[in-house]
Amino acid sequence: DGVLKSGEVYFHLTFNGRQFMIDSKICFVAKAPSYHLGDIGLLKLTSYQQLEHLYDVIVFPTKGQRPHPNEIVFK
Questions:
Q1: What is the pTM of this model?
Q2: Share above pLDDT 70 across residues of the chain, in percent, rounded to a whole number
Q3: Closest to 61 measured CA to CA, from 12, 2, 19, 1
Q4: Which pLDDT score, from 0 to 100, does residue 1 have?
Q5: Tens digits of per-residue pLDDT, 17-51?
Q6: Domain residue ranges in the chain
Q7: Which of 7, 8, 18, 28 is deepest in the core (most CB within 10 A)?
Q8: Closest CA relative to residue 43, chosen from 4, 1, 3, 75
Q9: Handedness of CA 3, 10, 40, 72 (dihedral sign)
Q10: How far apart are CA 9 and CA 46, in angstroms?
């Protein structure tokens, strides 16, 4: 069972050899190209110790009625 709850996302970034982790902020997630509001989503950035080995990827939760990437409208 995953640690992320519905509405949360995990993102641990590396840039120029430095690691950055942002917690408790709102993340704007969009498909490309984005034509209307259904192409975007807002999720809460959350950190969990169990996920700290993952970096330069977006981790979505497995909990919830629908996967968040699927909630963004696909044409």
A1: 0.76
A2: 92
A3: 2
A4: 66
A5: 898 888 889 988 887 888 888 788 889 999 999 99
A6: 8-65
A7: 8
A8: 4
A9: negative
A10: 6
